[in-house]
Amino acid sequence: MENIRLCDFQDKQIHFIGIGGSSMSGLAELLIGQGYRVRGDDRVESHSTEKLRREGVQIIIGHAAENVHGADLVVYTAAIAEDNVERQECVRLSIPQMERAELLGQLAAEFARSIAVCGTHGKTTSTSMLATVLLDAGLDPTIHIGGEMDRIGGSVHSGRGDTFLTEACEFKASFLTLHPTLALVLNIDADHLDFYRDIQHIEDTFAVFLNQIVPGGAAILCGDNARALSMAQRIAAPSVTYGLDNPACDYTATDISHDDAMCFSFTPMERGVALPRVTLHVPGHHNALNALGVLALCRRLGLDGADIARGLAAFAGAHRRFELTAVAEGVRLYHDYGHNPAEFRSVIPLADAVAGDHHLFVVCQPHTYSRTKLLFNDYLTCFTGADTVLITDIFAAREKDPGDIHATMLVNALQSHSVPAVYTPDFDACEAYLRAHWRPGDVVITLGCGNINLLNDQLNR
To answer: What does DSSP assign to residue 66?
Structure first.
């Protein structure tokens, strides 16, 4: 790969292929804030493209070879293959290309401290939670997350401090461009098996990433996840552990409780010494675990326990993470970005608690053919608590239909396992079914990282 330095393009034109993506749009904003000239394109219009256009960024809808004409540097995501017409045109015209993760790595390297939040699940919420604590503590970090939070008005924040905070995504091993000072490892589970050979390959890649922690840094490992905890034996950097269920960890919790909304409170213990009590205003046992990990990392930074507790209490959540989007005809509409069975198991109980004695409709948009095939059996046991499960057509994302997997196969298998599943191929079919069956007080939650969140908008018209 040619050695491309972002700093060499300060006064030149940078073109983003897929600029509407959550990470890409955020990176574009960070570059604009540093004075770079940015433009881009995407397949469809979105909230992100509209926001960038309002900020004066030239946005083209649709991919075409001529889109890259006049560009001095082209940035693309790992989901944009080499045979993409724009990337092919870059080759023909000898326009330098940089993958999104490399750009992120170069930005992070400019800061004295770099914090990376990694794991198969929970990165956006935990990064947003950590961002809130750091902002409230006055560190004013530069922030890059894969979702949006109201506190920073989007997915990025250009801070004045010496700290860079980012999600570190394992998809196609893209986090290997990062060399963090601190890395928070939430969990390591099977996912992205269209890229990784198996779970061992995933573990090995996490170990490579964690061995890139800079001298003097540390890894913060979740002791409730066996694979994350195993990293302590595979890396050179020192490790700090945390866990709600593992009493051997450095950071544990006592007096754990929750309110009717499933928002947890606990007293954190730092190697047996009590710290100020934490009360969360986001629901779920998994978020209590995330909060304990954030606390452990913040203590490594030297933050006071009371300041950390105040920051955690102030965290109001990230968009598309168990988010109440509207109430339509007396029915509460929620959305969650979760896109594999392990994430469904965390969020469906929350929706079930909210629904109470009312009916809970879960609308699942399976994400990618490969994930649906590889995790097929896990889908059959992850909808506990749902009264009705609607399954849409599979969201292809970056993949082509292989012809050997279809949403109806999942529906039939769910029904054979006594799960009340219904095939509703598109949004209109979902809407028709829901309006025919829901009653005031019921709850609908849409699940997926494709475009299923748009169904919530459609239901609220």
So the answer is: G
Segment 262-290, tens digit of pLDDT? 899 999 999 999 999 999 999 999 999 99
What is the Cα Rg of the chain in Å? Answer: 22
pLDDT for 2 equals 60
Backbone torsion region of residue 205, taken as left when φ is above 0, otherwise alpha when ψ lies between -120 and 50, otherwise beta: alpha
Number of separate domains in the chain? 3
Q: How far is 268 from 304, CA to CA, in rounded Å?
A: 13
**b/e map of 385-417 (b: 16 or more CB within 10 Å)?**
bbbbbbbbbbbeeeeeeeeebbbebbbeebeee
402 three-state secondary structure: coil
CA 351 to the chain's CA centroid: 19
Residues 279 and 167 in one domain: yes
Q: Is residue 48 in some structural domain?
A: yes
The answer on 220 and 82 residing in a single domain is: no
Parent domain of 135: 111-314
Task: Convert the pLDDT of each residue in 395-417 to its tens digit.
Answer: 998 788 999 999 999 999 999 99
From the list 185, 179, 186, the residue with the least C-alpha distance to 213 is 179
Burial class (CB in 10 A: 0-12, 13-18, 19+), 236: exposed
Amino acid at 403: G
Q: Could you tell me the CATH number of the domain that includes residue 44?
A: 3.40.50.720
Whichever domain contains 395, its CATH number is 3.90.190.20
Q: What is the pTM of this model?
A: 0.85
